[in-house]
Structure formats: structure tokens, C-alpha cells
């Protein structure tokens, strides 16, 4: 990851970390970055309407609903049977997204099967969550970076 003044440089595209990104910004950046299997950007209450996909996919979700202003962006990745949830503040997986990513049997058995980060990689009072989601999706889907290496890189950036 190249860190540019006020942003991240991914695949020749500079993504601002100084301003909060909107759903439209995130959609446009995902297209510019050519993130494969990008499903879209959703508010929390829209996830229940998504059709479950057995193939590879990724997407971005906001913690708030369509009736509220956006608050915090998180993302998910499905690669084969692997499912990953990323939150720059390392919060728990929202129930709506957990239900979407798990099978009926996994939900019934309360099975823990989604990888997630337990390390905070965003400073309080910053607005870079959207940019960090884009970086995560780019690293996992375009560069095929293992999740643990991604989190290590983000933690180094956070600590510097």
C-alpha cells in the first residue's frame, strides 16, 4: 500500500482519507479499481434483501440504516468457502451481515465461521473507514493477499 498525502494510492488511483466517502464515491472507486465480484454498497437494513450468492463476492455496508445518515463503513469478502468481515474499529459483525454470510445450518448451530479482524486500524475521529474498506477489498480480491497479512500491513500503518 502506498500512502500518499491525505490518502491511499491503490492501483494508480488515489483515495482520499481526509474526507468521508459517500456510497456513490465508494461505488465509483470500486469501478476504477476494477475490484472483481463487487456486489455494491449498502446500508445495514438493505442487506436482508440481498440474494445469497454461492460464488465469490465482496461488498461494503454502512452501520446505519437508510433512514439515518451514514456513520461507519465495513466490508465483507467471500472467496470460495472463506468468508471475511473487516471493520477498521474491530467491532462485532452486525447481525444482518452475519445472517447474510452464514448458511442456515451455521446460524442454527451458532457456528463461528467468519474471519474478522480483532485489531483496530483506524484512529478515533478520522473518516478513513471507506478508504480502508476499498483497500481491504482491493488487497483481498485483486492482489489475493491473505487476510492476516492485510491486517498486519494496516496495523503497521496505524502504528506509524
Protein model, in words:
It contains 5 helices and 8 strands. The two termini are 14 Å apart. It has 160 residues and is an alpha/beta fold. The protein has helices at 23-33, 95-101, 104-108, 129-142, 147-159, and strands at 2-4, 7-10, 13-16, 38-43, 57-62, 73-79, 82-86, 115-116. The strands form 2 sheets. The chain has a 5-stranded mixed beta sheet with strand order 4-5-6-7-8, covered by helices on one side. Strands 1-2-3 form a 3-stranded antiparallel beta sheet, with helices on one face.
Question: What's the helix and strand layout?
Answer:
Blueprint: E1 2-4, E2 7-10, E3 13-16, H1 23-33, E4 38-43, E5 57-62, E6 73-79, E7 82-86, H2 95-101, H3 104-108, E8 115-116, H4 129-142, H5 147-159
Parallel strand pairs: 4-5, 7-8
Antiparallel strand pairs: 1-2, 2-3, 5-6, 6-7
Helix pairs in contact: 1-4
**Main beta sheet strand tally, sense and closure:** 5 strands, mixed
Strand arrangement, major sheet: 4-5-6-7-8
Mean pLDDT: 93
What is the H-and-E element order? EEEHEEEEHHEHH
| Strand residue content | 15-25%
Name a few traits of the molecule.
Adenoviral Proteinase, Chain, globular, five-stranded mixed beta sheet, three-stranded antiparallel beta sheet, alpha/beta, single chain, 160 residues, 31% helix, 5 helices, 8 strands
What's this entry about, in short?
The protein has 160 residues and is of the alpha/beta class. It contains five helices and eight strands.
